[in-house]
Amino acid sequence: MNKFKEIVENYFKHSIDSYHSCIQNEENRYLFREIGLSHSDVQPEKDSIKILYNDSRSAYYVIEVRLNLRSKQLNLGHYILILNEENQVLDDYLVFI
Question: Could you give phi then psi for residue 16, rounded to 5 degrees?
Fold first, then answer.
């Protein structure tokens, strides 16, 4: 595997692991009741990775890793993990549509 593909896969793995931690959180369980599915019915699917600079003069950036959330053929929403340049989690978003 080339180095770039390995880096991309590591970002997606980190995001998928973070998604699973998020849905295990008791505070988020109500979300699945609202959509009428159990968390095991929702599958994360790799979507995109973006590197975002806040200012062109800055050396700092954030990495946004997006997963689509699907059940069978339905798009249910997305999960976004935001990391800093040191791969530390800054924020995450779990959105159902």
Answer: -65, -45
